[in-house]
Write a sequence for this structure.
């Protein structure tokens, strides 16, 4: 019975993994390639025990702004092994009259309860890409109109999520997404197929918005706000994804010679889209990944990250959860996006993930909501270093 069960799981996995990939054509924009969903093994991550003085500006840093983000992490972690005492003592310190506003006391807390480990890439390098994201605002409606014609979908009923780790422990945390076609499991619809009006998505429209490229960037950000015709703002957050790997359309535009490297920011891509509206659908289809949303309850002060707690402007970080534990403090050493010479050294909290965030020294900096946040996030593409603060007793094995 066990052998037969394993054969079935293997056949199921292979049915999703084995598909032919057409070779992409040359520019102008090629027809979208339809790669199969991929099982991506976690990248090797190297941790090295560090000393606190190795963290840039650690002794002078104002730690008070990051404290609310730590308390948010504790909402999700306070019952976990190695976190119970940490979070209990954080609550005690936060309840003291000046504890949470005293960087000296906070520094002593972190040094008493955590051990810093520097993160390295599999090749031993310490630098990685740090990008930014934000909470966008879109104009939309609950009903389709001439103006509002681009659908924002809820997760479809026919989307299957298959946890391979249940059958194969070595594939823990690896999931495939697909759909049934007769008695076969096949890859789910890609972006081009969804935009063309996949039948199973009819009736799953949460909202209709007025701008296709803004909707595309909402999917990249993972959460946002929709302003309805009566002025009411509603929040939407990530619900599911169709299982395809993320492909950067900025990189595609560079490869096609449409944009230079320094022009391939969010702002540059939006400007290109305005000038080439007829070519935009084909460009967007180059990224087969598609994100589905859910409407969030009223009263949330901020979008919810993958940890399940509200994000904190400029102190929450999206990471690759296969390498960096969600909820952990992460010391980030990078530079500001508008001035590569100005250090941006900050204690952040790993509270989110993203389809494009893959690798060890790789992170996405949450800037918050509004025009300034959008401007900073859109142009952030910095090199940076990262240290993870592990609770004592929960340190990783050093590579």
């Amino acid at each position: 019975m066990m052998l037969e069960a394993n054969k079935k799981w293997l056949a199921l996995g292979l049915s999703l993994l084995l598909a032919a990939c057409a070779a992409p054509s040359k520019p102008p924009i090629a027809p979208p390639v339809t790669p199969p969903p991929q099982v991506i093994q976690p990248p090797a991550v190297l941790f090295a025990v560090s000393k606190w003085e190795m963290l840039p500006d650690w002794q002078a840093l104002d730690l008070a702004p990051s404290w609310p983000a730590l308390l948010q992490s504790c909402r999700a972690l306070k019952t976990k092994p190695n976190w119970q005492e940490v979070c209990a003592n954080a609550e005690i310190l936060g309840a003291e009259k000046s504890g949470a506003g005293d960087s000296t006391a906070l520094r002593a807390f972190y040094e008493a309860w955590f051990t810093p480990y520097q993160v390295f890439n599999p090749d031993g390098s310490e630098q990685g890409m740090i990008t930014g994201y934000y909470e966008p605002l879109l104009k939309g409606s609950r009903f389709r109109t001439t103006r509002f014609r681009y659908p924002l979908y809820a997760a479809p009923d026919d989307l299957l999520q298959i946890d391979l780790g249940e059958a194969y422990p070595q594939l823990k945390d690896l999931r495939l997404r697909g759909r049934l076609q007769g008695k076969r499991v096949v890859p789910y619809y890609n972006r081009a197929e969804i935009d063309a009006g996949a039948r199973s998505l009819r009736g799953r429209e949460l909202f209709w918005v007025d701008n296709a490229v803004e909707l595309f960037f909402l999917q990249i950000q993972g959460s946002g706000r929709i302003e309805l015709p009566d002025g009411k703002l509603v929040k939407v957050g990530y619900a599911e994804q169709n299982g395809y790997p993320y492909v950067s359309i900025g990189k595609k535009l560079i490869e096609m010679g449409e944009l230079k490297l320094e022009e391939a920011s969010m702002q540059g891509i939006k400007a290109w889209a305005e000038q080439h509206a007829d070519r935009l659908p084909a460009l967007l289809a180059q990224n087969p990944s598609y994100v589905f949303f859910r409407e969030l309850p009223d009263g949330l002060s901020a979008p919810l990250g993958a940890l399940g707690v509200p994000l904190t402007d400029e102190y929450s970080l999206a990471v690759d959860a296969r390498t960096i534990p969600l909820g952990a403090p992460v010391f980030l050493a990078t530079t500001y996006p508008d001035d590569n010479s100005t250090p941006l050294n900050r204690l952040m909290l790993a509270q989110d993930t993203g389809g494009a965030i893959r690798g060890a020294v790789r992170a996405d900096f949450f800037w918050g909501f509004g025009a300034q946040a959008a401007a900073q996030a859109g142009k952030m593409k910095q090199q940076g270093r990262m240290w993870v603060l592990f609770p004592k007793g929960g340190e990783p094995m050093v590579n």
